[in-house]
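FIELD: query
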Amino acid sequence: METTSNQTNIDTSENDFRAAIIPGKFVRLEYLTDLNEFIKTDVTIKQLFSRNGVEHLELATGDVVPLNRVISVSGKLSPRYPGYANYSCDC
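FIELD: result
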């Protein structure tokens, strides 16, 4: 029974996370680089696209971030990083 509840929570957080990805919207984006550097930036999302089966966010700055490296979009935490909110701050 708990597995179903956990799966429901993961599905809900995935839906909330994806709902925050709106092309043309100015957001606070937190992500990890390929060197695992934590980046927090305020930026406009240009588009969400798939390349070679991997989803990416293209930002108005021209940067492209794999979606699986995104920690949060406008405070909506990715289900890939469930405990990460405990370590980040609005500094």
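FIELD: remark
The chain has a mean pLDDT of 86.
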